[in-house]
Each structure stands twice: as structure tokens, then as C-alpha cells.
Fold each of these.
Amino acid sequence: MQVFLSRSSGAGTKMRIAVVEPCLENKKNVIRDVIYGCWCGGKRIGGATVPPFELLTVATILQQEGHDVVFVDAQAEQIEIDEVKKRIAGARLAIMSTSVMTANSDTDYLRQLKAANPQMLTAVYGSHPTFQPEATLEKGVDFAIQREPEWVIRDLARALNNNDMVTARAVQGTVSKDDNGEVIKNKRYDYIEDLDQIPPLNVNFLPKGVDYFNPIVKNLPYITVSSSHGCPAKCSYCTAPFFHGTRTRFQSAGKVVEDIGYYLQNGMKEIYFRDETFTADRQRVFDICAGIDKRGYKFSWICNARVDTVDFEMLTVMKKAGCHLIKFGAESGNQDVLDAVKKGITLEQTREAFKWCNEVGIATHGHFMVGMPGETYDTMEETLDLAIEIKPTTATFGICTPYPGTPLFRDVKRMDESIDDGAKNAAMDRLHVQGSFNHLYCDVDADDLSKTVKRFYRRFYLRPSYIWLQLTRIRNSNMLRNVVIGGMNVFNFATNKNSS
């Protein structure tokens, strides 16, 4: 059993470090649990909130190093920045995640925190500092951390604890500026090979009394975790393969099962595995499920998968081990569009995966996009037709957005440099619901893309047959609440011209 101490044994407390999830003014529910930083938010995703597992990972590692770690999830607690300033008073380092979606607002938030404590240094990790490190520094951050942050932040904290700025600025995986304002861009840290070294999250950091609502979660409280790094796909619109690499690295099945035991002992009733593709290693899935069965663990869980990595036998075993929902990226109902973005799947594989899940009793969530490369008005309708045909339990529809670090962004940048670092185009107030550069690679008007997303939500969710089916699936009070709250959020998004 993992035991967390306030300081390393015999080492004494080192420096005070703040690990902060900010409360952004534009949305109550901003999702930034993944390593890339914020990726989504709003009523379009049913009003979901998540425990920020990657921030918790960083906080746990720093605590085990002996540092006095102050963890603040201001988003979950809905607290003002003045309260955050009080809680992190005296911190010598503040750490946040950021992405292209929130880079401007996150760095402004950090600047306000630093104004109250000018001696405090700031560091950010995530997709934007990874792919746009110089642009991130220009927004007032002291250290931009590229790719996987776990050991980079550990080494940075060690150097700063020794008051050694020369060593700190030389830490692999960091980009910073010297005293003359010149950029210091170090070699990127090697990908972490032994993921078993990463400790389970210290759930005691989570704010007390906070309910992380999520419409796809069956039982509360729940925790999000990741048991692998990397993605076997090479989708041209996605940062994952260019952030983590296309070779997936895994925690061992034994480590995953051991960590499950820790979370259950600490009161968690559901686990949401945020691995890019939890099912990428078929044997590991079977070994994890066997370990769950052997130890008699009773809990519910969710994972992400690709449609080409599952089969009926695997899904049957997963269902028996407690898996109640799988999220798939179906993306498009047109094969030419899927091929254009190098999705690497077929429509038949999508149909089979959803059919098998329905047969074994695992709920599904389907991600779909419009405005993708090669998109036309006709191919968009094929996407809606597929979504209705394969019967996912829930679905999201969004406008394809070019993210820094992806081939799609590089192509757009060559055609129109006004996209700059991408932060304005992908900002949270427009992400997935407005398109600015899609005309460069598809044949659909930007205004029509926005209207199509709303229309697809109405067509999918407001079918009487769909509403009735969801009501029949309710098994407990939390599921009832999910249907009511999540449904109202989606309804408001789909029917309100200005909602996002």
C-alpha cells in the first residue's frame, strides 16, 4: 500500500511549491486533466468536470521529493485568484499545465500570481510549451517544459531548491531565458521508459467536499489516471503522437492492479483511464482484468480505445472486470476523410466495435468532427448518419481545429501565417464551435460548420427513441443526476445560439 508523507523521510521539508489549476472566468467546467493541458469545456460536453490527474502526478512526485507542496484546484472549488494568492503565499515555484486553448488566459493568471510574490518563479507544461516554447516564454513564463513533465519538473525543483539558476536553466526538457533575455533551449528529456516508477496519485490533495460531476461517470467519487504514454496512431490533427511518440509505453499490468487497490482503499468508486489507447496492448488488458478478478475488486471503470484495437472476447472480459464505458474516436462517416487525416481505421471497424460493445453491455461514447481535411457538405451528413447508425450511448460533435505540433497546423501555417501560435484560433470561447482556417482544407463555410455542430447535437440527442433509451438505462441516483444535468447542458448548447 502506498503511503504519502508530508516530507521525505529524514530529509526535512525543502522549498514551498504551488501546483495550481486556475479558475478561468469564461467557463465553470474546463477540462485539463490530460498531460497536454486544457482540451475542452462547456455545455457541449455535458458540463463535465474532472480531477486533474497530471497535476496530481506532478504534485505527488514533488511531495515525495520532500517539498512543501500546495495543491489548489481553483476550478473545482470555484475560488477567486485572490484566495489562491493567499494559499500559495511564500511559494518559490508555481506550476500549471497549459495548452493552445488556454495559453493566453493561463499565462495572464500566472502573471497575476507572480505580481503578489515577485520572487516566485513560474513553470508550465503541456502542448503549448512543448510545441511553442518561445511563444510561451513571451507570455511571461519563466520555464516552458516540453513533452512529459514528471522528471523534468523533479529535476528543475532540485536545482531551484539548491538556489542554482545555472543548473535550473540547463535542465533537459526546459526552455527559459538567461539574465540577458536570450532563449536557452535545452535538449528534450528522453521519453519515460519505466512508467512503473510513476507513483499513484495522492488523492488527499483533492479539495474536500468537491464533487467532480461528469455525465459519463456511473459512481462517485472517481479519479482519472493514465497507465500508458504514447499513441500507436498518427492522426494529422492530433498532438498525441507528436507529444508522447507513436510507440506506446505501458505500466505493467501488476502495477496497474496495485494502483487500483490503492485508489479503492482511499475511497474511489470509479476509475477513468485516460490513456490515449488503453487497449493498445491486448495481453495487458487481459492481465489487468485477471488481476482485478483475482483480487476481487468491485468498482466501475472507463477507458479510451481505438476501434481497431478491440474484439468481442476482449470486450467481454473488460465488461466482467467492471468496465462500463469506452470512448472511441470515430471522427467521420466518410472513408476518404478518415484516410485524408491518416486516422488508420475503416468504417467497418467502427461499426463492429460499437456493435460488439452493445452486445456485451458496455456503453460507448463517440467523438465526431466536422470541417476536417477534404470535408464537404455531403460528407458531414455521412458523419451524422454514422453516429445515429452505430448507436453510441453519448456523442460529441466539434469543428476540427489546427493545433500546434500537428501536421495539420504546419500545413495551415504555410498557407496563412496569421494563425500565429494558434492560441487565439483555439481559445476556449470558440474551441470546437467556430472555425477560422477550415476553408483552407475543406469545402464548407465557417458559419455553416458552427450551425452544423448545433444541428447534429439536436438531431442526435433530441430523438424520442434516444431519450427513452437513456431513461431505461438509469440504475442509481448518480446516473439519474447525470442524465438530468448532462442532458440539460447539452440541450442548452444545442438550442442556444450563443452557448458554448
Note: The first strand starts at residue 16 and ends at 21.
Amino acid sequence: MKNFVEALGGSAIGGRGRSKVAGRSSIKTAKKIGGFFSAFSGSGNIRDTLTATGLTDIENKTVGDIINHLIEYCSGSATTIDDNAAKEATRLLLEEFIGEANSIDEVQELLSETLESKSLAEIIVKYFSYYINEVLSRWFYENLIKNKNENDCNNLFNQIKRFIVERVSVVHERTPLNNVDWSTEEADRLIKNIQQDVLNVFE
């Protein structure tokens, strides 16, 4: 993990999106995730929140449709390893929080429970932990699997993911995200602060 942060140019470079190899797509996506969760927290109405993201014909959408829409809304198209890592991290985050829902009303219920038990900063930190693990997987999995079997590689990266999530679990306490206007430079600065703090854990 220390070498990973060094490959990004250090936490100050990688964390603020100035690395050429990773850390840019995650900032853009984390801001969209923060905006979505914040909007839902303010209204408490998942239908209104989804409508604001551009989702139509909501009543005929499955939970899978909703998750896929939010992945595209938050992460956009993916053309680089960084883009794909940011996108997959979004999927993992959304599936963790609402993947067990069977209806849009259950999506609303699960999101409400999530925001009652977790701060928005905690959610963003969890996103960054998934993102870092996805970048590592894309950098090293293909080479490792040549020498190890698939099961061993999967076990290794599951251990790495648990390690990352555990190590960064306290970072959210440093950057509260209450009452943030997600369209402003202040939101951009706060998200970069969090990503830098997450990387700094391993530096």
C-alpha cells in the first residue's frame, strides 16, 4: 500500500487528483455520490431524488435498473483503468447499501437506514476504500493470476479490501460534510481532502 501511494506521487498529489495514473475519476464520482445522498437526505423521497438524476418511468424500474442508472449518473462513461475502477467502486457501494432491496420503497427504506447509521463522510470514505482496492486489482490481478490460481488471487484481494476498509474507517471523523453545496468548489476541496486523508493512512 505504501508503494501504491508512492506510485500516485504521494497522498498530496494522488489525493488531489494531480496524479497521471489514478485519483481523478474517483474525485468526480465521489462528488456525484455525495450530491445524491445529500439530496435524498434533504427530501427523504427516493422518487424525487431519482427524478432529479434523470431517471424516468421510475415505477417500472427494477432495483437493478436503479443501481445501473446511478452508476452511470455518478461515474459516467469509462475509458481508462481509473474510470473503470471508479465505476466498479460505485457499483460495490450501491450494492452494499441497496442491493438487497426488492422494490423502490425498499430502496428508500434502506437508504434512510444507511443515513441514520452512517455520516455522509463515512459513506464517501467507504467509496474511496473500494476505489483503491479496484485500482490495485486492475494493476496487479492479471500478472498475479499467471503465477497463482484464481481462487488464491480472489482471496488475496478480498483480504486487501478488508485491510483497506479497516485502516481508513476513522478518516470520516476528520471531514464532516453537513450542509455542503455539491456544485461548489468547496465540495471539490472537501472531497479531495478526504481522498488525500485516505491515502495518507498508507503513506
Note: Residues 2-200 form one domain.
Amino acid sequence: MSWKAKILKKISLYIEIVSVLEIDIKRRILKPGDKLPPQRELEDFLDVNLSTIKKLEM
């Protein structure tokens, strides 16, 4: 599965990405065992810096 977030860029980007992840988990769009795209792919798709994506690891 290739998960793609719908980011509005209204708040801190990494907080918004985490929020979208949480919503998609609760909606069961993301299920146990699903893999997210690689960091570089997320960076490109979401049009954010790699440092923003790396904040998600914290």
C-alpha cells in the first residue's frame, strides 16, 4: 500500500503529518503491517524538507 497524506500546511508540518497519520489509523485506512513510503518519497510527495520527515521519528 502506498499511503499519501493530504497536508494543508496550516500548522507545523510535522504535527499536521502526525495528525493525518493518526486520523488514517483511526479510520483504518492504515492498518497494522502497512508500510509508509520511504522518507525521500514522502519528502517529494508532501513537498517538505527531509528534516520535517525526520522529526516524525522522534
Note: Residues 6 and 46 are 8 Å apart (CA to CA).
Amino acid sequence: MAALDTTRTTTGSFGLVGRIGVTFASVVNAVVEWNDARVTRNVLNGLTDRELDDIGMCRGDIDLVAEGRL
């Protein structure tokens, strides 16, 4: 799983360069989140119904888990 630190605040870069940096960080963060959800979805879809039941899930839960809503 990839991690991106988005808790840092810029110190003084409020102009065009600061806005470009914030936009770039937002785009990178969105791509990282999309990829994590895609990988999670693929792994869970690869499990059998029995294996999903063993971890307390059903096929209908996969999208919720991948999107972090469950």
C-alpha cells in the first residue's frame, strides 16, 4: 500500500507555484487512492465465496471495502 503525506502545510508558497504544488499533490493522492482501491478489489475478487465468508464478507461488500466505506 502506498502512502502519501498530505498533512504538511506550505510555508509562504501561496502564489502560482504553491497552487500548482497543491494541485499536483491532489492529483497524485487521487491516483494513489484509485490504485489502492483497484488492487484491493482485484485481490478480494480473486477469493472464493468460502474464503470471503471466512473473513465475514460477501461479494456485495467488495466495492464498499475497496472504497473504504465499510
Note: The chain is about 60% helix and 0% strand.
